[in-house]
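ok so I'm stuck.
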Amino acid sequence: MVVKNGALGHIVLNVADLKKSENFYSSVLGLKVSARNKQTKMTFLSYGREHHDIALQALPRGAKHVGGKGMPKLHHFCIYVDSDDVIEKLYPVLKRRKIQIVSGPETLVVAGNRSISFADPDGNRVEIACNANKFKHDQRKK
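replied:
not stuck anymore, here's the structure
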């Protein structure tokens, strides 16, 4: 069997500082906290259609991200927005907050859409890209 019609459900990131990451994803990406699990040290964040789009898992005390000069386990994840304007308005906010911009804003050669990529507090690469078609045909309630 092959999955033929899938969609990304959510992503869970291991983070060094739960509060710092929660603030980043809320203030930069506009996600709202939908739940917290103090026992497992997790925060769940959502755009409002799903229980969570991104979850943050605090690294256990003493644990560290894998370092070195090798390739990271996660290359990037992408959040779609409904217009190029969102990307253009986000760029000065990232610059003002001294958030490391990895690429863009740019028009991607293959997909032809506007995109910007930047690093979160743990160095994970976050891409924001315009995919207006996704929003035209999305019938889910917000």
